[in-house]
Specification:
By secondary structure, the protein is an alpha+beta fold. It has six helices and six strands; from the N terminus they run αααβββαααβββ. Strands 1, 2, 3, 4, 5 and 6 form a six-stranded antiparallel β-sheet that branches.
Length: about 190
């Protein structure tokens, strides 16, 4: 019981605003709290998004007669959103897999979609597999290639409050959406 009370007191002193007691015992407080009991907001909001992204995919299938069939665009982001909506305990996979795969793709490929390392090839394959698996699970059908389309819409900053007695603040013109089409990627045979 005494250990629990000391722990609560030390954590309280760590997260409380600076005061004479926490400053006097800062060395002891930090020795106890860091790194195991550290408190920060990154746990709850690691990197707030500044854009909304919609990732869609379409497939290509070559029929036995040689004709090429293209599917309609399939909203991968919508699948993730519906898997999270109205779930008391949503899966972290549904929330983060596609978003993190895309972030990793941007880090490893840049703007020209050319992989420059083994890691970049691995991330490209990972993103391709996510798209192919989700399309197969929701649509079915045979296909050999997948193409992704990523629409990025910046989130507008909140308008500044109007000055007391003055007119409302002017809002900046909305930034247009940016649509990026990735190349066609071969996938393992999916479907019949």
């Amino acid at each position: 019981m005494a250990t629990a009370l000391v722990h609560v007191l030390l954590v309280f002193l760590h997260v409380a605003p600076p005061n004479p007691l926490s400053q006097q015992y800062s060395r002891q407080v930090n020795a106890w709290v860091l790194p195991l009991f550290e408190q920060n907001w990154r746990l709850f909001a690691p990197d707030p998004e500044s854009v909304n992204r919609q990732i869609s995919a379409r497939t290509m299938h070559t029929a036995p007669d040689g004709s090429v069939e293209l599917s309609d665009w399939f909203d991968l982001t919508g699948v993730d959103n519906s898997a999270v909506r109205h779930q008391v305990f949503p899966s972290h996979t549904a929330q983060n897999m596609l978003r993190r795969a895309w972030s990793s793709y941007l880090e490893t490929h840049g703007g020209d979609d050319q992989p420059r390392s083994q890691r970049a090839l691995m991330i490209q394959q990972y993103l391709t597999n996510i798209a192919a698996d989700r399309i197969s699970g929701h649509r079915g059908g045979a296909f050999e290639s997948v193409q992704l389309r990523v629409t990025t819409v910046p989130i507008a900053a909140p308008a500044a409050p109007a000055a007391a007695g003055g007119p409302g603040s002017a809002t900046a013109a909305p930034t247009p959406a940016d649509t990026r089409y990735l190349p066609w990627w071969k996938v393992d045979s999916h479907g019949n």
